[in-house]
Design a protein that fits this description.
By secondary structure, the chain is of the alpha/beta class. 28% of the residues lie in helices and 30% in strands.
Length: 356
């Protein structure tokens, strides 16, 4: 029988991100069918999201609402990870279960708390049982490091692989987390930036990875040029595959190499818009972005890290100083916002800046 139930209502255009967000938090009621109408998607919830969770959701989806909605029932409810593990772990360890997963295609990536280290295989098996769409569970085995922004992983359940196909906003991406950096938590940024691009623009993506910005921009706009640069040859090889996958060969142009050298050699003064998604080091490449922009100026999407008690004003000042040192100026900051929390009191943030 139909049931009236607490749900998350979001605009249809944000539906994929909202479902991924709710799945990551493991709060979707799997007994009920997700519903939609002409304008909205209704996601049934097993609990009320916390204040912090709602604050995180509000960054990419400011128009969400929590409300009651009538849902038809599914045949059989899938168990949650906690339900699968009930009776297999002592209560004090149950409290340490991870609250979220990163899901890339059919691979889940989980951070295993120290106290669960001896039970990680059991945790991995439980994740597969609770999420029937997954085939592999990887445990983080180190921090993101190196010029290629890679981290080590350990297979703790399922098929022993690190490659998959990830779908996002109508695009499909070949991803191998052992070879190239990819974060599903940036999906809303990929979509936001792509929606801002205008027909006829030339875009330079300085740290393109496997192409989530570049491919989506080209998929959404038939009359653009996107130069997608990355230092990691494995990432660019995957990018080439994704260009073919998504049939944007005549709009995305992959380039292997150091962004500074590539812009000096090939891309000086060509761009209407530059994307700088390298938060660890992007401030060191502000002069490169300015050099890539057309003489009359353009837009820069700058991603960086901010650590409390640092402020957006301080970050803007650092960015503006770097722009000035390149011989350009910031006409206006169009946006300054938090993208996601990456560690306690540490956030990835974005500045959208108009450069003259």
């Amino acid at each position: 029988m139909p049931r009236e139930w607490l749900c998350l209502r979001v605009p249809k255009v944000c539906g994929q991100h909202a479902i991924s967000f709710a799945s990551k938090l493991m709060i979707i009621d799997r007994l009920l069918e997700i519903q939609s109408d002409a304008n909205f998607i209704y996601i049934p919830l097993i609990r009320q999201p916390s204040t912090d969770e709602l604050a995180e959701l509000q960054v990419p989806i400011p128009d969400y609402t929590l409300q009651l909605h009538i849902f038809p029932e599914k045949g059989k409810k899938s168990k949650t990870v906690m339900e699968v593990l009930e009776g297999h772990l002592p209560p004090h360890l149950m409290a340490s279960l991870p609250k979220a997963l990163d899901v890339i295609g059919d691979i889940a990536i989980v951070e295993v708390p120290t106290e669960l280290e001896n039970h990680k295989k059991l945790l991995g098996a439980a994740i597969l049982e609770a999420h029937k769409n997954l085939r592999t569970v990887l445990a983080k085995a180190g921090a993101v490091s190196g010029d290629y922004r890679l981290r080590d992983h350990e297979v703790i359940a399922g098929e022993p692989r690190t490659n998959t196909v990830h779908k996002e906003f109508g695009c499909s991406y070949q991803v191998d987390v052992a070879k190239a950096y990819f974060s599903p938590r940036l999906s809303h940024e990929h979509q936001r930036v792509a929606s801002l691009v205008q027909q006829g623009e030339t875009v330079v993506d300085l740290f393109a990875g496997v192409g989530p910005f570049a491919v989506l921009i080209a998929k959404n706009h038939k009359d653009v040029k996107v130069y997608a640069v990355d230092l990691n040859p494995d990432a660019v090889e995957l990018l080439r595959t994704n260009i073919r996958f998504n049939r944007v060969e005549n709009r995305v142009f992959p380039i292997v190499g150091d962004a500074r050298l590539v812009v000096d050699a090939k891309l000086t003064g060509v761009a209407d818009r530059v994307i700088m998604n390298l938060p660890e080091k992007a401030i060191e490449f502000v002069d490169v972005a300015c050099k890539a922009l057309k003489p009359e100026g353009g837009l820069v999407h700058f991603y960086g890290f901010m650590h409390e008690p640092d402020s957006f004003d301080a970050l803007k000042a650092r960015f503006a100083e770097a722009v000035a040192n390149s011989g350009r100026g910031v006409a206006n900051f169009l946006l300054a916002k938090t993208v996601r929390e990456t560690a306690p009191y540490t956030y990835q943030v974005v500045l959208d800046a108009e450069i003259i």
